[in-house]
User: Fold these one by one.
Assistant:
Number 1:
Amino acid sequence: MPFKPLRRICLPACIVAPILVAFFVSLFSSCGSTRPLTYMQGAFDTAKLSVITASEPIIRKGDLLSIIVFSDNPDATRIYNQSVITTAGGTAVSGIPGSAPVSPGYLVDEHGNIMFQQLGSLHVEGLTIAQLKDTLDGRFQSDSLLKHPYYSIRFLNYKFTMLGEIARPGQFSIPGDRINLLEALALAGDMTFYGRRDNVLIIRESNGKREWARLDLTKPEVMGSPYFYLQQNDLVIVEQTRKKVAANDQLTTRNVSLAATIVSTLAILYTIFR
């Protein structure tokens, strides 16, 4: 049986042209220009920026404080400390499962007071930790209750909120009482590609008023801002860049182009094999 050559298939231009257009649109729309995700670019003024400008946190209504009293007489000191509760199955700071000690803490009420063990009501709103230690010194020493008292005081609910173009937006609590904005971003997984690093909004409540500040994290001078170190209950909002809207439009265009390519290919296959 003689070999019969295959027939050459010629596709009309009305079919080939849309395929080529859709292919190149899809190709170039997926190749966008990228920009480096940079922080604090440029020269550093070490004379100014080497000084840490973090201010001591102020005790506010709703804060939960851990206050432990020590002195030369442990037996006399014991009555001024809250009982430590041990919860089975808890997790200690080290991350090892097991029984974890939990201190109930002192809650600052709506009047700015705490009910301190054996001492009664103390007004603590507006005080720093150092000032609260002085207040306790005044009570213990003036009444000769303890000899050489000293204290361990920290916040149990030191928290802040991250919103916007953040990898993991939400509310975060830390065991200490000081964290800067870059550390907070790292804790939240950093900004997304479309987060504005030059215009980060900080909303802070202080003395019954709200304060707003916008920080440019691309400049070293941001470390000298009083808002670089966060305070408890700060709200951090990262805005999206204009490129995100363009990227969404680009994605839509790419999807439409891909769909057009698929439809055109199916139409060609149908024309060939029918």
Number 2:
Amino acid sequence: MFQLELWTDGACSGNPGPGGWAAILHIPNKGTRELSGGEDHTTNNRMELTGVLEGLRFLKEPCQVVVHTDSTYVLKAFHENWIAGWVKRGWKTSAGKPVANQDLWEQLIDQVNRHQIEWVWIKGHNGTHFNERADQLAWQESQSRR
């Protein structure tokens, strides 16, 4: 199974507001592919989710992927098994409210199930090259929609 790193980020100018996402696919000693996009009216959490989703969606076959994200929202959904609870409760939070971004979560679950994923949280804006680059791409996308 092919192995690679996925570095993702999302940005929003206002929340909600114009937003951008980025996904960087990196194969050590081989190369890097940058993806980015955005929406005119969105939220930061939607852009964080979209970065991961689009990065995984780009892969044409199942892979071993180390996903690097500075989003605790995305990370905790998998590390703390929030998703299983949401599904069990019919896509409701523990407070009984509808889960935000259900459409993206469902698509992301489909992509995650295709791959072997290791989730890694990285502190944002700490000088890590690919995290900084993903932030830059996402921010540029959000600014281009203002």
